[in-house]
Amino acid sequence: MKEDTKIVTAGRHPERFHGAVNPPIYRASTILFETVADLDARKPKRDSMFYGRHGTPTTFALEEALCVLEGGTECALYPSGLAACNGALLAFLEAGNHLLVADCVYGPTRRFCDHVLKRYGVETTYFDPLIGAGIEALFRPTTRVVFLESPGSLTFEVQDVPAIAAVAQKRGATVILDNTWATPLFFKALDRGVDVSVHAATKYIVGHSDAMLGVATANATAAQTLKKGATEVGFCAGPDDIYLAQRGLRTLGVRLRHQEAAALDLAGWLARRPEVARVLHPALEGDPGHALWRRDFTGASGLFGLVLEPASAAAVAAMLDGLELYGMGASWGGFESLIMPTHPERFRTATQWRAEGPSLRINVGLEDIEDLKADLDAGFTRLRAAA
Ligand SMILES: Cc1ncc(COP(=O)(O)O)c(C=O)c1O
């Protein structure tokens, strides 16, 4: 089956739901059993429900769909993308372990490593995202997990996932990847050596900026540990949010391909602007990550960065505050365009982020691309006037 067909069909079972196309929303905490023997045997009346936290048919449908799309064995759902990143880390680490994390990782994941994992006796070393097989030099006998985010969602550095995963496998470490940017459609993480592929489903899978959800899908080796970890901590997600993710998932292919094309068009246009020092987009020829992106990815999503030529904070504010079509907000992956200033230099420790001027990040939505360019063009006029 091709990817678009999987996206539409995976996890749907109309025959189980009176013919309904979409697995309906099950609101359930208590599940009743008819006999003591059934309860003791944890034998559910229908499907495999035992208690709401362990999942309902709404949960199982999305988990199944993600296993199909990722080619995974088990999937766990979490109440947010951050909970999925951190829940996956918790499942595979214990006191005394060493953790390797790409320096471009999402800030709150980094804080979890530096604050929470540290308190529980896990030591984190950050590494240059471009390290490739050189990561072997950072391994210790206690290194148990390598955490990647490729491309980094602020700086867009593509990691050599297969090379890093090969080293990790040799050294007996689990590889967890925050795969939110590419989605299961554009990067087949488990085929590239990753053990657990994590997504902030809040972004492209939900796709409509209206629900928070995290998902993690594991290969056969990591499946049991991932699921056990999520169950023991008590992670579960609400049925409405899971339903919205299923609904969003069905249009992931068309949304992403539109956003890919629009983002490439806009990125190319921006790269030719005199106000722009460089564009950070691995699918653009000439980007430092382009060769790896071409080798490993089957597409690019609609999120990319740019570095402006030197400009004052007031000039950037004049540019952004007057934009009509780009919202300013902390998320991405929805149907609407967003823009915001970023400060990657504040987060990094293993490497230095050097930029010619202020950095911005754009989430390209589904608006007409000419309108999006015109809005930015007017913004650049304000930027120049304020300078
Ligand atoms: C790369 C990345 N991972 C994880 C998250 C966390 O997702 P959530 O906001 O659903 O907790 C985000 C959110 O911005 C993100 O950008």
| Molecules bound to protein | pyridoxal-5'-phosphate
Proportion of residues in helical segments: 25-40%
CATH fold description of the largest domain: Aspartate Aminotransferase, domain 2
- CATH class identity of the largest domain: Alpha Beta
Number of domains: 2
Content of β-strand: 5-15%
Average pLDDT confidence is 96
Category from helices, strands and their pairing: alpha/beta
Overall geometry: globular
Order of helices and strands: HHHEHEHEEHEHEEHHHEHEHEEH
What's the alpha carbon Rg, rounded to whole Å?
A: 22 Å
What's the CATH H-level superfamily name of the largest domain?
Type I PLP-dependent aspartate aminotransferase-like (Major domain)
What oligomeric state do the depicted chains represent? single chain
**CATH structural architecture of the largest domain:** 3-Layer(aba) Sandwich
Number of distinct helices: 13
Number of strands: 11
